[in-house]
C-alpha cells in the first residue's frame, strides 16, 4: 500500500503561535506543511507573504508546500523560493505561459506544481503533466478553509491518475479542500497521493489521530 502524504494547511492554525503549531503537526506525523498564499485578487481573501515563509523555514524541517493563489505568480514566486519553499504551486488559470514558469521554478532547484480550480478541466493541464512534480486538485473554490468537499472533483482525480500511470509520468496528485477522514478515503481511492487538510486537523482534539485517520 502506498504511503499517503499528509500536508496540514496552516491556514487553520493559530497565526499568533505558528512555531508551536508547526511542532504540533511535526509530532503528529505530518509530512509537509501546506502554506496558502492569497492576494485578495485571484481569490477574495488575503493571507500571508514571503516574510512569513522565511520565518516558517527557520522553525521547521517539514517540507514547505507553498500554494500561490495569486494573480501574478511569475512576479512573486522567486520571493517564496528564496524564503525557503520546497515546492511552489501556482494556478494554471493565473498565467499565460505555465510551461515557462514551471521550467523557471524547477531550474531554481525546488519542485514545481500547478493547481486547478473546480471549474478547470484536466485538458487544460494535460500537456503540462510530463513537466510537473505535482498537480493540485482543488476540491473547494479556493479562498477559504473550512468549506465542504466537492464530490464533483473526484472524477478529475481519477482521470489524472489514469493519464499519469498510463504515461508513466513522475507527478504527485495532491488534493485540497474539505478533506477529512471520510473524504480522504474517496480521494485516495480515486488516486490521490497527497492530502491537504486544514480545519479537520487543527480543530481535532487529538491531531495525531486526525493525521493518522487520513492515511
Ligand atoms: O487552499 C485552501 C483554501 O483555498 C485550503 O488549503 C483548504 O481549503 C484547506 O482547508 P480545509 O481543509 O479547512 O478545507
Automatic annotation (TrEMBL):
Keyword Manganese attributed: yes
UniProt cofactor note: Binds 1 divalent metal cation per subunit.
Record: residues binding a divalent metal cation: 34, 36, 67, 176
Gene Ontology CC: cytoplasm
GO MF annotation list: D-ribulose-phosphate 3-epimerase activity; metal ion binding
Keyword Cytoplasm: no
Positions bound to substrate: 9, 67, 143-146, 176-178
Known EC number: 5.1.3.1
Pathway entry: Carbohydrate degradation
A Pfam family of this chain: Ribul_P_3_epim
BP term (GO), one: pentose catabolic process
Active site as annotated: 36, 176
Catalytic reaction(s) noted: D-ribulose 5-phosphate = D-xylulose 5-phosphate
InterPro entries referenced in this protein's UniProt entry, alphabetically: Aldolase_TIM, Ribul_P_3_epim, Ribul_P_3_epim-like, RibuloseP-bd_barrel
Enzyme class: isomerase
Alphabetical list of PROSITE patterns matching this protein: RIBUL_P_3_EPIMER_2 (PS01086)
Keywords: Carbohydrate metabolism, Cobalt, Isomerase, Manganese, Metal-binding, Zinc
Cofactors that this protein relies on: Zn(2+); Co(2+); Mn(2+); Fe(2+)
Function: Catalyzes the reversible epimerization of D-ribulose 5-phosphate to D-xylulose 5-phosphate.
Assigned protein family: Belongs to the ribulose-phosphate 3-epimerase family.
Official protein name in the record: Ribulose-phosphate 3-epimerase
Organism from which the protein derives: Endomicrobium proavitum
Gene responsible for this protein: rpe
Amino acid at each position: 500500500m502506498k504511503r499517503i502524504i499528509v500536508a496540514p494547511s496552516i491556514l487553520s492554525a493559530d497565526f499568533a503561535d505558528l512555531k508551536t503549531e508547526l511542532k504540533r503537526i511535526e509530532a503528529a506525523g505530518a509530512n509537509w506543511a501546506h502554506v496558502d498564499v492569497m492576494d485578495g485578487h485571484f481569490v477574495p481573501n488575503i493571507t500571508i507573504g514571503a516574510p512569513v515563509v522565511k520565518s516558517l523555514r527557520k522553525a521547521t524541517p517539514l517540507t514547505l508546500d507553498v500554494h500561490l493563489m495569486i494573480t501574478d505568480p511569475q512576479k512573486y514566486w522567486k520571493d517564496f523560493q528564496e524564503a525557503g519553499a520546497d515546492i511552489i504551486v501556482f494556478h494554471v488559470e493565473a498565467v499565460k505561459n505555465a510551461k515557462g514558469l514551471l521550467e523557471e521554478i524547477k531550474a531554481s532547484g525546488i519542485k514545481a506544481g500547478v493547481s486547478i480550480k473546480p471549474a478547470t478541466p484536466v485538458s487544460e493541464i494535460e500537456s503540462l503533466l510530463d513537466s510537473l512534480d505535482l498537480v493540485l486538485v482543488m476540491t473547494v473554490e479556493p479562498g477559504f478553509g473550512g468549506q465542504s468537499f466537492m464530490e464533483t472533483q473526484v472524477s478529475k482525480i481519477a482521470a489524472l491518475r489514469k493519464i499519469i500511470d498510463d504515461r508513466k509520468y513522475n507527478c504527485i496528485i495532491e488534493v485540497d479542500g474539505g478533506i477529512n477522514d471520510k473524504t480522504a478515503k474517496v480521494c485516495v481511492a480515486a488516486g490521490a497521493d497527497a492530502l491537504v487538510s486544514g480545519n479537520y486537523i487543527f480543530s481535532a482534539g487529538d491531531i495525531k489521530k486526525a493525521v493518522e485517520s487520513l492515511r
